[in-house]
Amino acid sequence: MNISIIIPAKNEEKYIENGLIAIQKSIVFFQQYYPASKVEIIVANNFSTDNTKKIAQKYTDKIFDTAADSIAEVRNSGASKSEYEILIFIDADSQMHIETLKTIYELINFTDVQAGCAWILPDEKIGIIYNFIIKFMNYIFEKLNTGSGLFFCKKQDFLAVNGFDEKIYAAEDLDFAHRIKKYLKSKNYKFRNIREIPIKTSMRKLKYVNKFQAFVKLVKFIFCYKKMMFQKNEWHEFFYNTNNLR
């Protein structure tokens, strides 16, 4: 089996190179064990106006422009360009573990785990409170067997569940995990949250997002998530305003 790595990106010139370097290291490590397997890197470029595309061109020639309106749609557009059997989705501001590709390849080929996600670690030092919150969230996600940040699955299963729901503007990853987990269970396969291959991800939202507004948004989401997931205006400042988050 071969692997397609899909990176959604919009104005990520400050972050994407570190992510691509980490991917290259993981590819080298993986191909020491499985030299016959191929890996492609696909950047789904949401019409960046900075140097994101130029930087990405140093690491891959598979860069596709998309005018997608939601993060889910950007991911799906990247997946539609993939050639290989295993899909891995990782955000442009995140760095995969060196053993990520090897671990995922072996899970899909040699176990009943056919999809999953990874733990999230901060890419820089943060305060004790924030560090506790991230660790707590990782444990909760592990107990619920869901997660965020990095997802992997077989392309045939991704297509069977129609990928990410493009009408969702927040928590589309949790929705995807729920649906593919349910689908795999019907086929006697498993989805797993894997702590052994954590990603390091940017803590920029802690710097640039108003903390009180974020707390209010979280409370609203907990009680009205079925409605808020589909409202882009609710999440513009937190996920879609590239001027404030870069």
Describe the structure.
This protein has 246 residues and is of the alpha/beta class. The protein has one domain (3-204): Spore Coat Polysaccharide Biosynthesis Protein SpsA, Chain A (Alpha-Beta Complex), CATH 3.90.550.10. Helices cover 46% and strands 21% of the residues. The protein has helices at residues 16-33, 52-56, 71-80, 100-110, 128-144, 155-160, 172-186, 204-208, 211-228, 232-240, and strands at residues 3-9, 39-45, 63-65, 86-90, 94-95, 113-122, 150-154, 190-201. Strands 3-2-1-4-7-6-8-5 form an 8-stranded mixed beta sheet, sandwiched between helices. Helix 1 links the parallel strand 1 (3-9) and strand 2 (39-45). The protein is globular. The protein starts with a strand and ends in a 6-residue tail after the last helix. The mean pLDDT is 87.
